[in-house]
Amino acid sequence: xxxxxxxxxxxxxxxxxxxxxxxxxxxxxxxxxxxxxxxxxxxxxxxxxxxxxxxxxxxxxxxxxxxxxxxxxxxxxxxxxxxxxxxxxxxxxxxxxxxxxxxxxxxxxxxxxxxxxxxxxxxxxxxxxxxxxxxxxxxxxxxxxxxxxxxxxxxxxxxxxxxxxxxxxxxxxxxxxxxxxxxxxxxxxxxxxxxxxxxxxxxxxxxxxxxxxxxxxxxxxxxxxxxxxxxxxxxxxxxxxxxxxxxxxxxxxxxxxxxxxxxxxxxxxxxxxxxxxxxxxxxxxxxxxxxxxxxxxxxxx
Length: 301
Description:
With 301 residues, the chain is of the alpha/beta class. The protein has 3 domains: 90 residues, no CATH class; 109 residues, Rossmann fold, CATH 3.40.50; 83 residues. The protein has 9 helices and 13 strands. β8, α3 and β9 form a beta-alpha-beta unit. α2 runs antiparallel to α5. The longest helix is centred in the middle third of the chain and has 19 residues. It is globular and about 65 Å long. The relative contact order is 0.12.
């Protein structure tokens, strides 16, 4: 897979162009794009972003157009494991890797993000949007208009964030980012291995990774969450395509957690029923979430 970052002459559209080769899979779009302007783009962070964005599709060679440094090459190869990907363009001469001091929480609009904000003091919320017409970049919020979300390597809380991590890497030098906070709680075995390789890769480009809720019992998250009515604005801002929070599985999961906390059997039954209907419609829930939904459904059988 050959990759290149291309800047539109208007400096508003950034395109990741790629050319699949013999052993590669074909990505879901002709190219990946973001609306926005980048002035500083370190080659190692660029290569890491390309690798993450195309993680599910590279099987033969990986050839970022500007190459990468030797210190990053090993982590890039490990990222594709167990595939034995040939990495080309490795430069053995020393090169500076930028650093940053700002912390960004990756915004996915989930109840986990709402809880993570309570235990972390991020400098900025960084999220992707397929529906926003233009990128909105402020001192506290960056909403990037992009189709990167199409390139998620699979189901799961971490897999869903991989395209956002790739975008954050591309903007990281301009935004002064040095730490990414992931709103994840439950990972499958493949994601457990992936987060180890991801952490090593980002460390190689001076970006720290933190997941403060990872492994915590779900019922304890209700202590970090506001009541469902108070979170309606949070869900509305995080899911601009939705007309009402009632359409969102995460809103009903908050209601389930609060019903367990308050002991309201009626609310517990209603929330469990709504979440089961989301599951039957194809929404992905983690194993822990599925267990809690089932336990709520069994409470009054």
